[in-house]
Every structure is written in structure tokens, then in C-alpha cells.
Specification:
mainly alpha, single chain, about 70% helix
């Protein structure tokens, strides 16, 4: 059980750090709509909402596993941070495709 507690602490710290490091992304997110016609682009909107949800998912990935720690599968809630990273990478790849 001690090993599992250490894993939870390390994963929580990493999730909070990822959420804090993503704050500059939120500040520059409105710049996505600077170029003409970008406000109508669904891919630009997807990237915008991805950037807004990134720190939220990361913080949920840090908080929810501790709230539901009595549940045996609660360790999988840390994957919310990974989901945010994958969502960000997918939105960048979709934006770069012609």
C-alpha cells in the first residue's frame, strides 16, 4: 500500500506541474483567431477549446484520484492528464494537415 501511495503522490505532483506549465497556453489562446477567416475554422476552434481544457483536465487528474481513493480503479483517473496531452497533440496535427 505504501508503494501505491508514493505513486499517487508523484503522479499528483506531475499533474499539477503540467497544469501550471500550461497556463501560458491559455494566455495566448485568443491569438489563434487573429488571422482573417480563422474564427470560422472548426480546427482552430478545436485547438482553442483544447487549450482551454488542458489545465482543467490536468487538475482533475490530480484531484479526482484522491477524492475517490477508496475505489480500486481510481488510479486510472491520472490518465486525464495524458488525455489532455493527447488531445492537444491531435489538435496540432489536424491543424497542420492540408
Amino acid at each position: 500500500m505504501v508503494h501505491r501511495k508514493k505513486t499517487r503522490i508523484v503522479l499528483s505532483i506531475l499533474s499539477v506541474l503540467v497544469a501550471l506549465m500550461s497556463s501560458p497556453l491559455i494566455m495566448v489562446a485568443p491569438m489563434i483567431f487573429d488571422s482573417p477567416g480563422s474564427s470560422e475554422s472548426p480546427l482552430a476552434q478545436f485547438l482553442f477549446y483544447t487549450l482551454l481544457s488542458f489545465p482543467v483536465l490536468s487538475m482533475l487528474g490530480a484531484i479526482l484520484p484522491w477524492m475517490f481513493k477508496s475505489h480500486p480503479k481510481s488510479i486510472w483517473l491520472y490518465s486525464l492528464t495524458g488525455l489532455a496531452i493527447v488531445q492537444f497533440l491531435v489538435s496540432i496535427m489536424l491543424l497542420e494537415t492540408p
